[in-house]
Specification:
This protein is mostly helical. It is built from 10 helices and 3 strands; from the N terminus they run βββαααααααααα.
């Protein structure tokens, strides 16, 4: 195989269309051109073509991922999902028709680099998530643990942090936030009980809350 042309792209002149054997193969950046000393009439092997492709996909992913995570805490799962969607949305623009690429290794490499830079940290994300939940939308530790797992946080991290959630205090705060400083009757206020149960709290915990509220706000 032979490179037959390298020409600036119309929409982005800092990038170039790489043609191999007279057909568009993929877009490349100036760094890739310099790294692999690409030029018209250069003979290329299948191995070199794959390296070029891997380099370009990695660079595309890395640039997009940096923007995606900057200023916003994201999980590793968030980044992986974002990059997969990006690739399948853009691959027809990035690559020649019929050219496909196994993106998992590139995504793994990008994630590894972001973790090394501290730009993605599932442990810190989980700490902030728990803190935010307890401050603004209190839930039981069972519900919070389930939410964290759904965001791709490992069970190891969940187990490490979830005991910081005190269900009695979270339930108390949730109730006061919703209903104010008043008591309720667990037998006669099914709407209150239903609301609290939907946030993950058990009958026993709600019973303890009933007694605590009566101690705090009941009439003497």
């Amino acid at each position: 195989m032979k490179i037959t042309a390298i020409s600036p792209q119309k929409k982005n002149t800092s990038r170039f269309n790489l043609e191999i054997d007279g057909r568009f193969f993929c877009g490349v950046g100036a760094t890739t051109i310099a790294t692999y000393y690409l030029h018209p009439n250069k003979e290329v092997t299948d191995g070199l073509v794959h390296e070029i492709l891997a380099c370009e996909v990695y660079n595309r992913f890395y640039d997009k991922a940096i923007t995606y995570v900057t200023g916003n805490y994201k999980t590793e799962k968030d980044v992986r999902t974002y990059l997969k969607k990006l690739y399948f949305k853009k691959k027809d623009e990035w690559l020649s028709e019929g050219v496909d690429f196994d993106i998992e290794a590139s995504i793994d490499s990008v994630l590894k680099r972001l973790v090394e830079l501290g730009m993605v940290n599932d442990l810190e994300y989980a700490k902030l998530f728990i803190s935010s939940r307890l401050r603004t939308k209190p839930r039981s530790k069972r519900v919070i643990a389930s939410e964290l797992r759904s965001k791709g946080i490992s069970q190891t991290v969940v187990d490490q942090l979830i005991d910081s959630v005190n269900d009695d205090d979270a339930l108390y705060k949730l109730y006061i936030k919703k209903y104010g400083e008043r008591t309720f009757d667990i037998q006669d206020d099914p709407k209150v009980v239903g609301f609290l149960a939907r946030k993950g709290f058990s009958w026993d915990e709600i019973s303890k809350l009933e007694r605590r509220l009566k101690d705090d706000f009941g009439k003497p």
